[in-house]
């Protein structure tokens, strides 16, 4: 049954596909294309769940009526469970997206208000706030107006060029609205049931967005200052993400010039993303649409 196949595809795209993509370190060479590939997989999973919820009632109705193509009872039960699960995912996704958007925007508004109370230095692209603190920290607060925040320790640890590279990294996040991409993956993560939920997609996309911002900052300030900044901040950072970003920058932007293969990786990622969206539609949804239209019009399907 189409509904059962689509529900299985939704689970496959949300459980097995993230494992394979997370292991594909070659995608780090083309983070923009890699994010598009992750988005294509996530969108395909949602579309498969929606299509399963839409296809199951019609298929169950035809099977119950004993029309041609009816299946055994266990398939009807499986299709019913698939439709219920898919419908639950779609409903949870809509509710979670709305709720998450409201919560995040309220939180960011409170952050901007608190920063305004502490004072700011106006800048052309975004307001730059310097906070006191003994930990080198830099982050951005999306919104209108957007804010970039660094601690005084950043200014002490880094020189002027390195600090500018870090600030450009944060502004890259703001200009590209990477927060909206993460918001969508967070909503998708929460929407899927715990038994098929995985943080791999959310964590991988977060890392790829950091790498994408690194590339944009490197284009504006040169890779050298950013590499030195990450090398200085790495011993004071929690986790391994800064070390991973620094190693990537040294690999993608070596002193003897940029290395190749990024275009080939990007092309492969874009083509794979297009296939992930198109193939399930052609292979599963199209035959079901033909059967459904045939049942409604009374004409035999080819």
Reconstruct the topology from this structure.
Layout (H helix, E strand, L loop, with lengths): L1 H22 L7 H34 L8 H46 L8 E5 L6 E4 L5 E5 H6 L2 H17 L1 H14 L8 H22 L1 H11 L7 H12 L9 H36 L5
Parallel strand pairs: 1-3
Antiparallel strand pairs: 2-3
Helical percentage: over 70%
**What is the count of helical runs?**
10
Summarize model confidence as the mean pLDDT.
79
What structural class should be given to the helix and strand makeup?
mainly alpha
Order of strands in the sheet with most strands: 1-3-2
DSSP strand content: under 5%
Termini distance?
A: 17 Å
Shape annotation: elongated
* CA gyration radius, whole angstroms: 24 Å
Largest sheet: 3 strands, mixed
Please provide a written account of the structure.
- The chain has 302 residues and is mostly helical.
- The protein is built from ten helices and three strands.
- A three-stranded mixed β-sheet has the order 1-3-2, sandwiched between helices.
- Helix 2 runs parallel beside helix 10 and helix 3 packs antiparallel against helix 6.
- The longest helix is centred in the N-terminal third of the chain and has 46 residues.
- It is elongated, with a radius of gyration of 24 Å.
């Amino acid at each position: 049954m189409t509904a059962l196949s689509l529900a299985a595809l939704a689970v496959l795209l949300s459980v097995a596909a993230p494992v394979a993509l997370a292991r594909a370190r070659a995608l780090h060479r083309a983070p923009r294309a890699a994010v598009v590939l992750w988005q294509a997989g996530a969108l395909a999973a949602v579309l498969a769940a929606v299509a399963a919820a839409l296809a199951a009632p019609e298929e169950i109705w035809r099977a119950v009526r004993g029309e041609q193509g009816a299946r055994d009872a266990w398939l009807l039960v499986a299709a019913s469970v698939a439709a219920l699960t898919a419908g639950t995912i779609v409903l949870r996704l809509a509710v979670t997206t709305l709720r998450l958007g409201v919560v995040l925007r309220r939180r960011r508004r409170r952050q901007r208000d608190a920063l305004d109370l502490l004072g700011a230095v106006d800048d052309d692209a975004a307001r730059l706030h310097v906070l006191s603190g003994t930990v080198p920290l830099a982050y951005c607060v999306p919104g209108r107006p957007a804010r970039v925040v660094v601690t005084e320790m950043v200014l002490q640890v880094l020189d002027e060029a390195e600090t500018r590279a870090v600030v450009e990294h944060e502004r890259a996040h703001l200009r590209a609205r990477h927060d909206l991409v993460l918001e969508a993956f967070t909503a998708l993560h929460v929407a899927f049931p715990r038994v098929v939920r995985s943080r791999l997609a959310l964590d991988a996309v977060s890392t790829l967005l950091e790498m994408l911002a690194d590339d944009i900052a490197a284009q504006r300030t040169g890779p050298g200052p950013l590499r030195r900044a990450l090398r200085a901040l790495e011993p004071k950072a929690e986790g391994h993400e800064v070390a991973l970003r620094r190693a990537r920058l040294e690999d993608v932007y070596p002193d003897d010039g940029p290395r190749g293969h990024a275009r080939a990786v990007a092309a492969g990622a874009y083509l794979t993303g297009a296939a992930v969206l198109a193939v399930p539609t052609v292979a599963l949804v199209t035959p079901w649409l033909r059967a459904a239209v045939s049942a409604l019009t009374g004409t035999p399907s080819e």
